[in-house]
Amino acid sequence: MKVNFTPGPSQLFYTVEDHVRQAFKNGIPSLSHRSKEFELIYGEVKNGLRELLGLPSDFFIFFTGSATEIWERSIQNLVEKHSSHFVNGAFSKRYFEIAGQLGKNTFKVESPNGTGFTSSGIVPEQTELIALTHNETSTGVSLPLSFINEFKTLYPQSLIVVDAVSSLPYPDFDYSKIDSVFFSVQKGFGLPAGLGVWIVNERCMAKANKISAAGGSIGTYHSLPVLLTSEKKNQTPETPNVLSIYLLSKVLQDMNRRGIQIIRKETEYKAAILYQSLEKHGLAKPFVQEKGVRSQTVIVAECRNETERISKHLAGVGLFAGGGYGENKKNQLRFANFPTHSKEQFELLVDTLNVL
Amino acid sequence: MKVNFTPGPSQLFYTVEDHVRQAFKNGIPSLSHRSKEFELIYGEVKNGLRELLGLPSDFFIFFTGSATEIWERSIQNLVEKHSSHFVNGAFSKRYFEIAGQLGKNTFKVESPNGTGFTSSGIVPEQTELIALTHNETSTGVSLPLSFINEFKTLYPQSLIVVDAVSSLPYPDFDYSKIDSVFFSVQKGFGLPAGLGVWIVNERCMAKANKISAAGGSIGTYHSLPVLLTSEKKNQTPETPNVLSIYLLSKVLQDMNRRGIQIIRKETEYKAAILYQSLEKHGLAKPFVQEKGVRSQTVIVAECRNETERISKHLAGVGLFAGGGYGENKKNQLRFANFPTHSKEQFELLVDTLNVL
Asked: Residue B10: pLDDT band by 50, 70, 90 thresholds?
């Protein structure tokens, strides 16, 4: 057995290989994106995501090439002049930088890597978009839902955009407090990389139309209005990654059959036993000190000089940890805790760690 | 047997299913795009494309989500103010429109659907980019290579960009006459959709840097300079469609083993017998009248009231023609003639047509 705990691309969801086999039988890899069959698949993704995430019906679901693309498109379509970013790691920082590269006035609330934020109440009045990275894949810090929910009341004029790349489908967001959320399929959904999913509400649509009407550039084939025109027919403006959209529809069915409550409970159980092991461990400890901001889906262990030894010890029984991110590559290990990772795999991981 | 002649997504290249099986065995669908293994795969695509297309070593090869994305990125990165477009169908028109949506001053040389162009000598002096659609997938018109090659001499100050979405790997371009060429993998290369390939030379890089230095917006993660920074490490800025890039590397090996000369000769043979059949046919005829601009890779038959009858007749023996494009949906049939379509399949197609 081999289990891949790298936080993305991670272990495939355990049904994916069967779905790929079935896809080839059914001609999905060469299916036209203008066919009725494709429209049905797009519809299944929409229904499946609404059910799994508890997403209200007034949210639209669009496809892009990656979540990186959504960083760019969201700034283009939702910000005329000013955006604010909560930055506490490499990925929230990159979202912030992209806004600057697109010529926006950006404001940054910064917190050291491995920590959360103390206050939501310091965003400039003129901010049109508040960017929150729910789960910093680089450090294993997760923003508490209560923190995310503060912004809507404090800044009713701003759009609240949540990067949930490495946390969904786990978090039980209150979608009345969020205007847009997005993810890519190679993490929690366990699919091959190459597809981003962008979820937006009517306020986002209105904003994009307003920017466009005022002569601003919101892009072309992947602007929100163009995406919506296609989405109304359950189509996409360009030829998309049809196979990946099909696989997403199938994995959503599998996950809904299992039930989101079970997926959430198991996620919390697996995170709890790993954090417990790290707390007591002689050679490693949780990188994130504050328990309230510890990620349930990407667990980072500070291992210092023991990193390589621990990594090899785990690999010896087929358990592959991810390295630390960036400068922490050789000091930390990262463990994805996604729906495809079973309780048994986490129990084996913890048992193997504990004998070191 | 079932053969899909729709011009894209088309029939898969005949080795793809085996390569997908092997990919799952080797963990490719969850391979990190920051791994050595991925870098080797990117390198194989570069070598494979250089060999197959006879591409000089001073051209760079980048990946995007689709060819539609390349329409947008090429205008963003290569045009400060002014682009010119040769428009003779739906796809060349869309490229032209995208330039307008991005706020550029656009000039259009228009020719009726189903025809080529009479003159290259009417592009405004200030044009920075000349957009040529080598093969109009909507109508089956292909620009002669001699026509494409005229522009470099006439407009040495402009960048010559060729959309070869539905023709590569067939055309034997003279790359000294072209600054950029692009395609998507679901047509001639017979792969599942979800990947665009953008090939540019140093002049394109210089232009993007110039626009950026002057304060123009060339985008963020998929600007040419950022793509190049990653490409130097055989990496991509974002998490890309790794599986598709792997499959492209494998299909390129297969095609190179076969040899581009054989692929070209077979393409011409298959096109010749189908055009010949249509010329003599009582119920259908070639839509493109002028032989010199007839596409070798997308062959369009004008069938009028007989369209449905012919389509059903072919489907009866497992041969699936594509419908006409747009308003010609019910008046025409389109036949892709890609490397995956064998001589035997085309002979069966022609024999089946001829008995009608």
From this structure: confident
Q: Which residues of A touch B12 (CB under 8 A)?
A: 29-30
Please state, in angstroms and rounded to a whole number, the distance separating the CA atoms of residues A286 and A18. 36
**Structure tokens, A228:** 């919506």
d(CA A330, CA A324): 6
Q: Which are the contacts of B40, defined by CB distance < 8 A and separation ≥ 6?
A: B234
Q: Does A241 touch chain B (CB under 8 A)?
A: yes
Of the partner residues A27, A66, A220, the one whose CB lies closest to the CB of residue B102: A220
CA angle A152, A158, A159 (to 5 degrees): 85
Query: Residues with Cβ < 8 Å from B297, sequence gap 6 or more?
Result: B135, B142, B166, B167, B170, B188, B267, B271, B336, B337, B338
Contact A29 B10 (CB under 8 A): no
Residue A309: pLDDT band with limits 50, 70, 90:
very high
Question: Domain ranges in chain A?
Answer: 3-10+260-354, 16-257
CATH of A16-257, one of 3.30.70.260, 3.40.640.10, 2.60.40.10, 3.30.2040.10: 3.40.640.10
Q: pLDDT tier at B312 (50, 70, 90 boundaries)?
A: very high
Check B192 against A239: CB less than 8 A apart: no
Find chain A residues with C-beta within 8 A of B220's C-beta. 71-72, 98, 101-102
Of A30, A192, A219, the CB nearest to B243: A192
> Residues 132-171, chain B: which have Cβ within 8 Å of A?
none
Question: Is residue A74 within 8 angstroms of chain B, CB to CB?
Answer: no
Residue A57: both structure tokens together: 């019906």
> Is residue A9 over pLDDT 90?
no
- E strand intervals along A185-312: 196-201, 285-286, 298-302
pLDDT at B30 over 80: yes
Closest residue on chain B to A223 (Cα): B101
Task: Tell whether ipTM is more than 0.90.
Answer: yes
Most B CBs within 10 A among A241, A242, A247, A320, hence the mutation to make, goes to A241
Question: Measured between alpha carbons, how far is A180 from A198 in angstroms, rounded to an integer?
Answer: 7
Secondary structure element (H or E) that encloses residue B152, with its range: helix B145-154
Helix pair angle (A16-25, A242-258), 10° resolution: 130
pLDDT category, A324, cuts 50, 70, 90? very high
Are B3-10+260-354 and B16-257 equal in CATH topology? no
For domain B3-10+260-354, say whether CATH 3.90.1150.10 is its number.
Answer: yes
